[in-house]
Amino acid sequence: MKLIEVKDYQEMSKRAAEFIIAKVRAADAINLGLATGGTPVGTYEYMIEDHKQNYTSYRDVTTFNLDEYVGLSGSNPNSYRYYMDEKLFNHIDIVKLNTHIPNGDAADMEKECLRYENQIEQHGGIDLQVLGIGSNGHIGFNEPGTSFESSTHIVDLAPSTREANARYFDNLDEVPDKAVTMGIATILKSREILLLASGEKKRDALAKLFNGEVDERFPASILKNHPCVTIIADKAAIPEGVIARK
Ligand code: GLP
Asked: What is the DSSP letter of 101?
């Protein structure tokens, strides 16, 4: 894992956007794996700004998002479909049909998991997956204890995850208790991974990631077994003693 240290959230967002834009520009076509949450919002803002100023085109980009809440349709402002449309897709020249997010509102969620997993495979897999990290080490919505062999599946959200995400809802009761997420094996199949972390709330998680063993009780630890992971983190998120490139 390569760690790049940056000053603050703004710089993390800029570096992450530049990283993604460089890949988009270099490839004829690319499959991006995208994340939601607070962390990548600034990255998407830079990508939009760059699209407007430098005309980076997303016409040949296909995207697959990590996860979605179960029970929320795409028109619900708290759904990740809504988030992605609002925070990125509506502002760049991507073809909407090429943007994929699990359908949290499918009649048969088991079938939806299979369909999503197959869809990623049929498109040739993910070239670059963007990840955030939960304070308990979750990636996507893969909570501690999730099998490293898991493919796209339904999860019960940990109370700490529901609480962390309650800030986007009117109250905690409205946060769904289930989600659909790419599995850990799905994420690990990506050819390259970019993990973003900002703020002291993420410091303990990064400490476990760097200093701990690969263990299903800390999902992100599996990233140590992936050959091509870059972490862009700001000062506040980087634990003492971990040496990063600037
Ligand atoms: C959420 C998302 C994850 C995200 C993580 C961190 O629950 N499902 O994909 O990476 O938690 O969120 P944030 O970036 O808001 O700290």
From this structure: -
Write down the pLDDT at residue 237.
98
The answer for residues whose C-beta is within 8 angstroms of residue 9's C-beta and 6 or more apart is 42, 198, 199, 234
Phi/psi for 157 (5° steps) reads -75, 140
Ligand 1 pocket: which of 9, 39, 44, 87 to mutate (most atoms <8 Å of CB)?
A: 39
Please tell me the pTM assigned to this model.
Answer: 0.96
* Number of Cβ within a 10 Å radius of residue 134: 23
Q: Could you confirm whether 67 is annotated as catalytic?
A: yes
Residue 68's nearest CA partner among 18, 115, 22 is 115
Q: Which of 5, 112, 117, 143 is catalytic?
A: 143
Structural domains of the chain sorted by starting position, each given as residue range(s) with its CATH number in brackets: 2-237 (3.40.50.1360)
Reply yes or no on whether the pLDDT at 241 is more than 90: no
pLDDT, mean over the chain? 97
- Amino acid occupying residue 121: E
Collapsing DSSP states into helix, strand and coil, what is residue 148? coil
